[in-house]
Amino acid sequence: MVYENPDGVMIGLEIHVQLNKLATKLFCGCSTDYHTSEPNTHVCPVCMGLPGCLPVLNKRAVEYAIRIGLALNCEIVEQTQFHRKNYYYPDLPKGFQTTQYDYPIVSDGRVVIEGEDGEHVVRIRRAHMEEDPGRLMHMGSIEKSKGTLIDYNRSGMALIEIVSEPDMRSPREARRFLDKLRNILEYLDVFDSTLEGSMRVDANISIGGGDRTEVKNISSHKGAERALLYEIMRQKNIKRRGEKVVMETRHFDEARGVTISMRTKEEEHDYRYFPEPDLVPMRVGSWVEGILETLPELPDARRSRFISDYGMVDTHAKALTSDIRVADFYEEVASQVDPAAAAVWVSDVLKGELNYRDLNIASFTVEDMVKIIELVLSGKITEKGAVEIIRNILDEGGSPMDIVKEKGLLKVEGDVVDQAVEEVLKENPDALEDYFAGKEKSLNFLVGQVMKKTRGRADARSVREMMLEEIDKNYR
Ligand SMILES: Nc1ncnc2c1ncn2[C@@H]1O[C@H](COP(=O)(O)OP(=O)(O)OP(=O)(O)O)[C@@H](O)[C@H]1O
Ligand SMILES: [Mg+2]
Ligand SMILES: [Mg+2]
What we know:
Low-confidence stretches: none
Bound molecules: adenosine-5'-triphosphate, magnesium ion
Largest sheet: 9 strands, mixed
Pfam families: GatB_N, GatB_Yqey
InterPro entries: Asn/Gln-tRNA_amidoTrfase_suB/E, Asn/Gln-tRNA_Trfase_suB/E_cat, Asn/Gln_amidotransferase, Asn/Gln_tRNA_amidoTrase-B-like, GatB, GatB_C_1, GatB_Yqey_C_2, Gln-tRNA_amidoTrfase_suB_CS
Organism: Methanohalophilus portucalensis FDF-1
Mean pLDDT: 93
Number of domains: 3
Structural class: alpha+beta
Distance between the termini: 54 Å
Shape: elongated
EC number: 6.3.5.-
């Protein structure tokens, strides 16, 4: 099947990734650990942009940028350099942002995503380093705000801006791309996605070969998908009226789910880029080989390894490796119990229960998962009982064994089940007759009655077998 892309949707994303695992900011020694601090407490003359101070480049930030470039299958530039991008805005009191212009540190890469019609390649145009500006906090909604507060704690944080080609054909593909990118970056250990503002997206979109609009500064992947869906609808309406979409910058109002025009798009020459005289050009070509050697296993490689090492199916391998925390969790469980059973329990059951509750894997322990799988594999509890234990732990806490005792989940076998089977057959002559008359479903009903009597603690499959034996022996 080939995806037709009926509206001619083209989406290109610019993603600002904060290198928040660095200890210090991009050009000064201020700590990056500001997320729980009072505003304007992690600042110095450099990151507040006071005139006359000199930046000193964070070497590790450059290494991280190269790591990211390599992981995205990019070319790494031989020599790179910073530029000044001049604009006046209160989040940037220097009057310019130190960024990269015509020598971005990495370019020409690719990321494979799960597209509308199977594997789909999204090309990476470039990725460059720049400093994060301060954070503006508008009081009330952005268009009607009575005042704005500024926090410079974020100012000067190292950012990598990753720019894709307009290769995504639907909002869903855009979201998949963002998820994949976040996953790769977490495997690289260069950022922590759980911190507020760690990944911010500008989403560019056009339809039917028209001009693009750019929705700036979206803070979640779901938000990006929603903003793009809205833009498609809006742009289609404009075309339907016979008008033209104008190139402009828009803002996404999360609460209302709409995009709002902010300003017409600035042109490159508006920024008066020029080389940053306070930072010399850098030759980084010789760093690449060393950094390549330190690259960790990435999601796609881990997915293949899960299939070959643990003999699981691809859907499980994909689900288990799409978040590094889940992958690590799984491997710890699999080192202690049967890996095949672990794959099913972690990816099908536990992940589902977590998603349903909007929780993540940190809400469950490896120890509990191992214990529960052992109980099932040794035949002490039923699969149904195991699911009940997982739910109980997530909803109310407790340990597997305590829950087993409290809820009486130990599997019942032997006499108790025999007796229940006999009783059910005696008590339901009509159902038995229906079964003899060829109604297969009555057998399910009878098995269900036994399960009810044993409060779900019998193994349904063996109950069925016992039931058939009993019927053959005493009722034919
Ligand atoms: N016709 C198009 N439809 C949708 N997206 C497009 C189209 N043409 C370009 N794009 C996307 O727009 C983005 C352009 O980003 P880039 O950073 O190069 O420039 P910019 O948006 O002009 O600059 P700024 O960084 O100031 O926002 C890329 O992600 C690209 O894929
Ligand atoms: Mg850009
Ligand atoms: Mg842009």
